[in-house]
Amino acid sequence: MRCVLGFDGGGTKTDCVLAVESSDLRVRAQAGPSNPFRVGFGTALASLRETAHTALGGVHANAVDVAAVCAGLGGVGQPADAEKMRALLSVEFPQATIRICTDLDLLLAGTPPGPTIIVLAGTGSAAIGRGANGETQRVGGHGPMISDEGSAYDIGRRAVMAAQREYDRAGKDTELGQRILREMGSVQWPELRKRIQSAPDEVFPRLFSVVAALADNGDQSAQAILRTSAFKLASIAATLAERLRLTENKFSLFKTGGMIGRSKYLDSQLHERLRVTLPNAQAMSLEISPADAAANIALELLRSAKSGAQPK
Fold first, then answer.
1. Strand partners, 307
2. How far is it, in rounded angstroms, from Cα 7 to Cα 31?
3. Is-contact 274 231, C-beta < 8 A?
4. Is 48 helix (H, G, I), strand (E, B) or coil?
5. CATH code, 3-107+289-307
6. pLDDT in tens for each of the 312 residues of the chain?
7. What distance in Å separates the CA atoms of residue 26 and residue 24, rounded to the nearest whole number?
8. Greatest extent of the chain over all pairs of C-alpha atoms, in Å
9. CB 297 within 8 A of CB 6
10. Is-contact 223 272, C-beta < 8 A?
11. 15 pairs with which residues across the strands?
């Protein structure tokens, strides 16, 4: 049995879709993060290997049965990083044709033709788009030190800052502060600061759920954090629209990522900010998942390899 694998990997999780040649069968699996910029190549490869093993087990296949792989990952925007990941996956799947792209590229591949902007709001943040002439560009997605405005990482960081400031001012925790400490295992602030210093990616994105729940229950501090996030995400999209010269024309607008659909308050704020900032945008929903788009690309690689043609 010959099959292909499509991976969609970010800073929080990895989705895998296995597709069987000449069949509609698809098997799905999920594991931890596979963004090598955030978690390192070893951890990223381990997550990819885990999802592949689970998916292949669903059809009683092995790694040698994999004929093509498309891995769309965060953190491989630089050619050297993409080549390193390609080499690692070539060892895992020795019979496979392998394509490495970014997770943002996968998102765009899953949209219909035409002018498009996709806003990604997850562990990190970015926007990718396609202009009227087919030109593609991206804004953001450069990591938490210089980018990722409005992301789950950014929200968690600002939540900790707000809660710590209030504790310093009043000598006691607000509801936000109490929920943060409880979420992290009922630690105290000195312990949480140590954990942030050693592994911020394991703390800040996790706190998005705390802020989202409080905001939906009317907490003003949490709502202020999410309003700022919505403003930043809309600003990223507006910058990209200007670069693609889409501000005066209608175009499709998609929102995706782990933050979307998890807070009614954030969803409403982001919808309103995008409506005001990009009045010509037509809000749409992605018809296929990024991992399915990756599997489709892998199938195209397989067909191209059989025909001897160059893949698109």
1. none
2. 11
3. no
4. helix
5. 3.30.420.40
6. 799 999 999 888 999 999 998 888 999 999 999 999 889 999 999 999 999 999 999 999 999 999 999 999 988 989 999 999 999 999 999 999 999 999 889 989 889 999 999 999 999 999 999 999 999 999 998 888 899 999 999 999 999 999 999 999 999 999 999 999 999 999 999 999 999 999 999 999 999 999 999 999 999 999 999 999 999 999 999 999 999 999 999 999 999 999 999 999 999 999 999 999 999 999 999 888 999 999 999 999 998 877 766 555
7. 6
8. 70
9. yes
10. no
11. 8, 30
Q: Strand 251-256 relative to strand 281-284: parallel, antiparallel, unpaired?
A: parallel
What pTM was estimated for this model as a whole?
A: 0.84
**Cβ neighbours for 101, distance < 8 A, ≥ 6 positions apart:** 70, 71, 72, 73, 76, 82, 297
Domain with CATH 3.30.420.40 in the chain: 3-107+289-307, 113-287
For domain 113-287, give its CATH number from 3.40.50.720, 3.40.50.620, 3.30.420.40, 2.60.40.10.
3.30.420.40
Q: Rg of the Cα trace of the chain?
A: 21
Rounded distance between C-alpha atoms, residue 287 and residue 20, angstroms: 21
Q: How far apart are the first and last CA of the chain?
A: 25
Closest CA to 152 of 123, 119, 120: 123
Amino acid letter at 234? A
Beta-strand ranges (E) seen in the chain are 3-9, 14-20, 26-31, 66-73, 97-102, 116-121, 125-130, 136-140, 251-256, 281-284
Closest CA to 155 of 73, 236, 221, 253: 221
Question: Mutual orientation of helices 220-243 and 152-170 as an angle, nearest 10°?
Answer: 140
